[in-house]
Amino acid sequence: MLEVAESLTDPATRKPAEKNQEPMRARMLNEFVYCPRLFYYEQVEGVFVENADTARGSAIHEKVDRGKGALLRAKKKQSTEGEEPGVESQASAEPSAGETAAAETMTPAEDAEPPMETIHSRSAMMSSTRLDVVAKMDLIEVKVKARSADDFFAVREAQSVTPVDYKAGAPRQGVDQNELWDADKMQLGLQILILRDNGYPCDEGVIYYRATKQRVRLVMTAEIEAWIIDRIAAARVVAASPTIPPPLVNSPKCVRCSLAPVCLPDETRLLVGARPLPSETSRFPANAVATSPRRLIAARDDERALYLNTQGYRVGVKSERLVIKDGDSVIDEVRMNDVTHVALFGNIQLSTQAVQELCEQEIPVAYFSMGGWFYGLTRGHGLKNVHTRIRQFAAASNPLQCLALAQKIVQAKIRNHRTMLMRLHVQPPAAAVQGMKEIAGRVPSARGLDELLGMEGAAAALYFQNFAGMIKVGEDDLDDEIPGLEMTQSAEKKRKVEAEAFTFDFTQRRRRPPTDPVNALLSLAYSLLAKDCTIASLAVGFDPYVGFYHQPRHGRPALALDLMEEFRPLIAESTVLTAINNRMIQSGHFVRAGDAVNLSPQGRKAFFQAYEQRMNALITHPVFDYKVSYRRVLELQARLLARHLTGEIPEYVPMITR
Q1: CB 336 within 8 A of CB 321
Q2: Which pLDDT score, from 0 to 100, does residue 490 have?
Q3: Quick one: which H or E segment has residue 64?
Q4: Contacts of 356 (CB under 8 A, 6+ apart)
Q5: I need a surface site. Which of 3, 143, 210, 525 has the fewest CB within 10 A?
Q6: pLDDT tens-digit map of 485-516
């Protein structure tokens, strides 16, 4: 780092920048001083998350950003070319006695400098080759000589410039007066140095804090310039490193940071040095601090998933709204800001303009068959970091590391299945519960993925043998009527025909094709969960097709299937049981095609509602002890897996319900 700093300060020894290296933005260096981890996410990984503070800052800069960026040229330096060596120039020579006398006899009007006036330049973009930094300056106050009648068409030059930057907050309270925050001092100091490197006389800058409506000045000194150059060198070292800086320790900065849900500062520090306890009921690491981390992420998303399953619909875009049409008639219009992702089932057309806009706003589009088979995903490429994927590929090629991760995933799935049986079964089967406990205890001793697969299959067989005991809809329930809402004879006859055709009796898991309503619901639920796990893995920076337990196979999102294993009972199977037991799905919602049983369009719509209710349900996280939705937990687990693969936390802690 010292060598880099010296090369920046000494023009003779400074090494030229790499040919393909882009100049670093001054705003990124501001973020580096504020928080090196935040700088790494934005500069290296290209991650940015909007929140109320960033939106307010963008609104404040709207007027400034409308500026043309034009700036008067710098004042020319007096040339000394053509002078003989050893002879002082006239501008620096001492005046003679006659010249002094003539100057003393001049009137004040003749000796006075022309008056100065101030003009403003907005949104000026400038760079410095010496620092290899580029900055966009909100406002530059330029001092120029006032025009006279005889030089109206003369080219005017800037005599001095002062950059002015706008901030939404308040200045730091100093002992004697208000002071600049270090991050603001970095950004403003860079603007001063860049203006100097472009030939403009600039000795100071100003930060205008809107919260207190105060201007705080920064006078450039040699000490401040050396500090800025040192920070530039340190930032370049961090940007070139494959390892992200550690999170801040209990910092108040994290509370207002828009990237707190990505950074997870408290959660990461809680799991550093973690060793799971032998007891399956305790989920806190042995070396962790007893206090719970702050919940710095929103409990649930404000956005909602958009499901479209009516065949023949066409989706276009207009003014950042998705316009859904059936033929020439408009069915609905949905704001893109309200959509977390779009799921298309069957023959639904999406315009090229809509695809481009969805990719631009990082809104994934998931494609399914009419029966619910998950085909694939379309998503923008906003996440540019490759270090996470490099670690993922390295781990996937290491059999021992794959086995260690697979053991945790399978053990979590078996324990969650066992908890489901004990909670929801009419009479929990003691033999199955004990058998699943014994299998889960043997999982850590599995010697390979094949042996682990056999253990998972044995536990799944015990679970699905008793799955019917959690379905609480029977023949007696079909005869229940709400007083005053008795069915007509024709409706009663139709219901009996449907009941004879489709029942919720479940004997065993059948996948391809599902031959009964319960299996059809399970297959659709797993497909939806695979879609959401794929979206979560892409949001973190993973390749969803390279897994650890599920080995890579053409067209199969192996990592997404790994992530969904521990959530199969918690989300997919729980949604199916809720939809059946609460009569959200009834026998009339199914159709038969050959040996396969599928949901009708009305049935899919009802099931989508049940699934989204489950995804948005709030739970208390078993490790971090704060309330979040299941959709948040999916992303949280993907980020914890990334933390483990990059070496930030020693072990991956799966999601095991209490």
Answers
A1: yes
A2: 63
A3: helix 62-65
A4: none
A5: 3
A6: 455 666 556 555 555 566 667 777 777 777 78
